[in-house]
Amino acid sequence: MSDCLFCKIINGEIPSTKVYEDERVYAFKDIEPIAPYHVLVVPKKHYSSILDVENNDDIVSYVFSICVKLAKDEGFDEKGFRIINNCGDEGGQSVHHLHFHLLAGKKLSWEA
Ligand code: 5GP
Ligand code: ZN
């Protein structure tokens, strides 16, 4: 997707602070972090949202496995962490390329 912000970040057209990359996933620091550790874990393939993921596609479990790996690597397995996906306007999605927020480093509050 030529006009997608996260596709541009993934292909290097827009700079980002990379924390992890493999053939399926790119992870980078959120530009406006809401926690001491706030990373976006993003499939390299463009999906507009979680609604685009077919039942037989393992991308979500793959992304979760990378989130858990990153959390463990940073030592958050003991204190805890949070993985979030926002979908659609009321779900709070602002970038329409599927992504998961990995948050950690403080006691996180909860509201809806
Ligand atoms: P959403 O609101 O769609 O769930 O999350 C989008 C996230 O992308 C937000 O937390 C926002 O701060 C982050 N973001 C938006 N533009 C950029 C950018 O250009 N670079 C980085 N690193 N993060 C961005
Ligand atoms: Zn995209």
From TrEMBL:
Please name one Pfam family that this protein belongs to. HIT
Q: Which GO terms describe its molecular function?
A: catalytic activity
In terms of InterPro entries, this protein maps to: Histidine_triad_CS, Histidine_triad_HIT, HIT-like, HIT-like_sf
Boundaries of each HIT domain copy? Answer: 5-112
Active site (record annotation) = 99
What the entry lists under PANTHER family is as follows: HISTIDINE TRIAD HIT PROTEIN
Q: What is the protein name given in its UniProt record?
A: Histidine triad domain protein
Which species is the source of this protein?
Anaerofustis stercorihominis DSM 17244
Upper lineage: Bacteria, Bacillati, Bacillota, Clostridia, Eubacteriales
